[in-house]
Amino acid sequence: MTDGFDTAAAAVIAAAISGAISILSILMSKRNNIELEKIKNDLEIKKDEQTARRDYEYEARKRLYQECEPILFQFAELSESALKRIYALARNARDGNLGPDRFWLSTDHYFIRSTIYRLIAPMAAFKILQRRLTSIDLNLDKAINIQYHLAKILYYTFSSSLDLAKSEPDIPYDPDFIGIDSKDLTDAKKQEIRTKQPEKYRLQGLKVGKLDILIEALILVENGKDARIKSFGEFELEFFEQLGETKTSVRSDRFEIFNTLFSYFHPKTRPVLWRTLITQAYLYNAIISIRKNPDKEFTNFGEIKTLFKIEDTKLECNWKQPNEVISDDDFMKSFTASENYIKKQFTDIINL
After folding, report:
1. In 3D, which of 143, 131, 76 has the Cα closest to residue 297?
2. I need a surface site. Which of 2, 156, 337, 342 has the fewest CB within 10 A?
3. Is the pTM of this model over 0.85?
């Protein structure tokens, strides 16, 4: 009797366990199916998102290249032209053609006009580029992104004379006579001081508004929408008038201030403007280098700095004459200040 009961009980228990296992198996199977469906749905969603993202990036990249490549190509060519002119200014200083007692820049009308054009034209190209990029994601192409930010720093160099003067190692610069010792000076006295100390008191930069006007003057809008940079010939015809075989006059006073900046330019007597030009030379070298090697990756500012070709620039921008009285340390201060200025500007606008 007991054995029969035990056998029956065992059978019931076994059946119960078997039933429980079956139920658990069914529940697990349903749960697994639900999980599988969820995973499948998640994968489909991710796939759709990736496809949408890929399609977006493809179209965005295509638009980026269509809008930017032509002007970036021109910008690189204009950068090379401006860089050569900066080097030419240093060479002419070294040859003794520049300075307060030399009137070569004032009398060589072609050189001063072409200097204005060659130094402003790249910034006009940036202005056009900036307009085209209003609704385009620059992060899609790292090379274009870096070029854009370098060009943006370049655009404001002429209007950053105060910042460049303060860039370490700093130099005194007070063209507006705002120092406490200038409070009661007459205009005549200010002019006398400017003449005696041009390196500190002569204007060596441009206001942002004035700079914008000069840059806009080089941009021609055609068909109501297509903007391009005027050729040097168009620039001459519009703003300068031929009076004879060798003489010219400024037809518009728009570029008179730029003409004044460079007419008596010399790195020694216009050190802040010289810092501006060195800064531009560094930026032009970087822009040209990136253009030639668009696939190069950058993880920090030090890697960007290698593009400045600092040692080459120092050689090309050596303006010292054999009898020049200036120490190597003083000569190098302008280059150091320019490096420090770019580093600050660059790290303020992009994280590397």
Report:
1. 143
2. 2
3. no
